[in-house]
Design goal:
By secondary structure, the chain is mainly alpha-helical. Helix content is about 60%, strand content about 10%. The protein has 1 helix and 2 strands, in the order E-E-H. It has a two-stranded antiparallel sheet. Strand 1 and strand 2 form a beta hairpin. The N and C termini lie far apart (about 65 Å).
Amino acid sequence: MSEEKIITIDGKEYKESELTIRCRNVIFSRSELQTSKTRHEMELEKIDVLTNYYNMEIKKELEKLNGGDSKP
């Protein structure tokens, strides 16, 4: 037999079965949003890394073009 899920909200614990269906749905929706936010933040970090890489590659190419005298 599995134990009932306990949800803590503002420091108070609630049995999942004690919550209304609407409350459980809202909690689930919020959880999905938080997960989505984390995924988006990770994607933004990847974008920053790739942007920095491409910026360095552009600088290298400009240095070749300018004979090593590129200006930022």
